[in-house]
Amino acid sequence: SLSHSPVFQAALSWLNTEAVGLSLELEGLTIEGVDAGQAAAKFDLTLELRETSEGLAGSLDYATALFDRETIERYLGYLQRLLKAMVENDSQEVSQIGLLDEGERAQLLESWNETKAAYPDASTIHGLFEAQVRRTPEAIAVEHEGRQVSYAELNARANRVAHALIGLGVGPDARVGLCVERSVELVVGLLGILKAGGGYVPLDPSYPQDRLAYMLEDSAPVAVLTQGLVREQLGMLSVPVLDLDGPQEDAEHDPQVTGLEPHHLAYVIYTSGSTGRPKGVMNEHRGVVNRLWWAQQTYRLDASDRVLQKTPFGFDVSVWELFWPLLAGARLVMARPEGHKDPAYLAATIEQAGITTLHFVPSMLQLFLDQVEAGRC
């Protein structure tokens, strides 16, 4: 913040002089000095102390651009408790003096840790999706550039992919690469991998080939799902490749994977690699279900909602965009590939598709709102 004092931020001033008051008496008139206070803070914090006949007196000046009154009053409480403890025992170490009052201690140790909440901890992501399919089989689940797929059709297509993957040896904690552009097939592939018991590894076809090659080598997938349009991005592969644009298995029933539990792998998302090589972060079903359940309890979706999926599926925000609406009976509207880079397109899509819910990180939201077209949303 530019409000910080540039050279140093905190000052302690000891006034080793007695406070002298101004008093002047004239016939019929008494004049007394008035403390006008500090008009402006010179530094972030300035503690001014002086000794009086009654003890220590002082004041704490602060920059209002950096601190509010409540924070400063809390700081003064810390100082008072520190001084009191020093008077009571001048041989104790300062580091051993407790600064928090009972209310603050209870807040830190108890109130802020009362986070346990009930959620379907025995469920998997795809298990909750299948339950929604049974509730609203004919409702539209996914929409992409004029194409609509019902919950029943989406489930059947994902099941065909799942059975094919099981035939290739995919099971609990097995990793399956997924290199697909944003489309209905992306959702089919994600659900198919989860239904087979595997964890998906997003391989964004817009990534450089060397990054994709590293992710494939590091994650060691059992198989890879892709589309004909982006297959060449992956180069030569030593594992089976399944083309989502091609024909699939005939089996459409929900697969029952033996031993699959909520603690098994759901996906592996790689970091940006800005501080070195990208690192794969593994997440389990139960963690994702917990997050999605919280979202549904806090910002409830229903069949009337339309959620825009715009985040590349190599980023964790995509997880909430993709699965949350499908567990709540809402409609998932897929933006076109690379559409997330075009604020005008996003604004038009939000308006035309009747989007009710979307997810932005603050920096991206500000960029979006800066566009003229955003005013229509």
TrEMBL record:
One of its GO terms (biological process) is amino acid activation for nonribosomal peptide biosynthetic process. InterPro entries: AMP-binding_CS (IPR020845), AMP-dep_synth/lig_dom (IPR000873), CAT-like_dom_sf (IPR023213), Condensation_dom (IPR001242). One of its GO terms (molecular function) is phosphopantetheine binding. Residues 129-371 form the AMP-dependent synthetase/ligase domain. GO terms for cellular component: cytosol. Residues 4-109 form the Condensation domain. This is Non-ribosomal peptide synthetase. It comes from Ralstonia pseudosolanacearum. The lineage of its organism: Bacteria, Pseudomonadati, Pseudomonadota, Betaproteobacteria, Burkholderiales.
